[in-house]
Amino acid sequence: MSAHTLRTAALAASLLLACAAGAASAAPARTSxxxxxxxxxxxxxxxxxxxxxxxxxxxxxxxxxAGLGLDGLRAMVPPAFADAAHPTAAELRRRALWSNWxxxxxxxxxxxxxxxxxxxxxxxxxEYSAFARLxxxxxxxxxxxxxxxxxxxxxxxxxxxxSSGSRGIYGSIAVAGAWGLPKGCAVAYTDKGAGTDYFDLxxxxxxxxxxxxxxxxDGELAFEPDAQARKAGGVAFKHAHSQDNPEADWGxxxxxxxxxxxxxxxxxxxDAAPFTWANTRVIAVGISNGGGAVLRAAExxxxxxxxxxxxxxxxxxxxxxxxxxxxxxQAALLMPCALLHKPLGAMPVAPLTGDSAQSFxxxxxxxxxxxxxxxxxxxxxxxxxxxxxMRGDGWSDEALRAGALSVNFDLWRAVAATYAxxxxxxxxxxxxxxxxxxxxxxxxxxxATPAGPDAPPLARAASDGERATWWADASGIPxxxxxxxxxxxxxxxxxxxxGMAGLRELWTGLPLRAGVDKAALRRAGERVRKGVEQTRAGxxxxxxxxxxxxxxxxxxxxxxxxxxxxxxxxRKAGAQVSYWQIRNVQxxxxxxxxxxxxxxxxxLLPYVYAALDRVDAHLAGGAAxxxxxxxxxxxxxxxxxxxxxxxxVPK
Length: 651
Prior knowledge:
Blueprint: H1 3-11, E1 49-57, H2 69-74, H3 89-104, E2 125-132, E3 141-148, E4 157-162, H4 173-180, E5 186-190, E6 199-200, E7 206-207, E8 213-214, E9 235-236, H5 238-241, H6 250-268, E10 281-287, H7 289-297, E11 308-312, H8 324-338, H9 357-366, H10 372-376, H11 379-392, H12 397-408, H13 411-423, E12 444-448, E13 459-460, H14 464-473, E14 484-486, H15 495-508, H16 518-533, E15 545-551, H17 563-572, E16 576-582, H18 595-598, H19 605-621, E17 629-631, H20 644-647
Helix pairs in contact: 3-14, 6-7, 8-9, 8-11, 8-12, 8-13, 8-15, 9-11, 13-15, 13-16, 15-16
């Protein structure tokens, strides 16, 4: 399997980013109508929303797959546009669904989707969408509600979700939509202030509510940098450049999406209105960043609105744990070297492209990141020191091996650069000395010329055709969909290492590059660390039913840094938490269509769907939540189809 093949698959994937035993007690039988009356109604929330739209999706254009079905979603070529430079809103929606299904789920034949778990059977219905804005935010976030024609008026249920990674508004279709729509629930989504509403700074063009390209003033845009930010060239994207630090508000984004769902249901079924927190059941579910978002929503206790939460592989930070920015920037510098430690065994992929792993070992040793002995040791000694340092800081062997995927696909750099800009509330990079809102490490995002044998790619202006695809095809964090990530110009042979070192400096406060202005580093580091602290999760509501599901081989968001410490905090607060830890599951289901990875790892989605089934039964009839479990899975042999015994989903 070539690195090129794996990298191609990665562009369609999401970027993304101690258990106590014993069965949980049974909940008293009740329905959501028993909730105390909340103060929010659809009418109360109207002022939050703008650019509202309603579209119908029936016959050959359904809610789940826009009529593509499983065969269409498996197609290697995306749905075409009749006019490549000017696609219609319907064409963009269909292509966005194709892209997001393929970026989240393993749809490959033999992988079990549609047979052992999940469904893409057509679900006709309506979509309601809008821009939502939090008080004080510079930019809106998208919200969308899918209301199936088979909505269960007796059950009156909403499944609310946030996109995985930094994906666009359909970034949880394979998580929440695939489970909730067939059960007759309305499904509400938010892009949580990230998403694929890229702004072309060269052309001065952004994205309208319907996904088409537009100019400022030509209808409301989903993301519109201010005049100063627009002086930079290239491409701006909302997660990095909104200057809102959207992660700090992920929970409020989720609740606004649920509020918009009440409003949409009032419009869809006026004879059954009003839909309120008191008479409508709300279950929140998400994976990765979306999982972190629904856990943040669980701490919003000023009114009784949320009935249960299911979080898969959540990116969540609690006091005393390591935040994403810390372990990501550490991995960016040390993991390429640590993976050379031979006792780790075979990696799922070759762990490095570009700069040699030895250059990372040399840099870490020369800058005293590995201890005194490594400074004079050979590469093997340095690799062992890097491995021992990471193990000592909480990384498991399983997480390190799966982390080879993030090294190979350059995810550590992509994630760290994006989050540094987001946490610091920085504008797109201009030239040196261009102002206080400039990032510490000046990464630039742009379309690029093709790379040649002796010529690296160069930034260039995007074409109309390229720009038109971003909303549907992008993952929300470049590189991908024709937008590349360019590091700052650095003299020497290891520019990628140097840029990553600059990102790490922001967390540690220790200069790792020559000529660093220590006072400026202190100011920039304080700014970024303040942004990180604003993302710290609080405790959920006492008694809230919750299930947390995490793969023990997750090499992007290891459970030791995220779900395990969160579960401890939630239990201390009195929440009802069931914690499933799944062996042989890493972070990216979408990679499992590659035969070597499919034979090594299992998907996470079956366990998320099963957890949703269990909380649904708990809310509907008082069934006990399951106890904690470490699920002993059995990877399938290469070339063999998935069987239920491989998954061993808890009964």
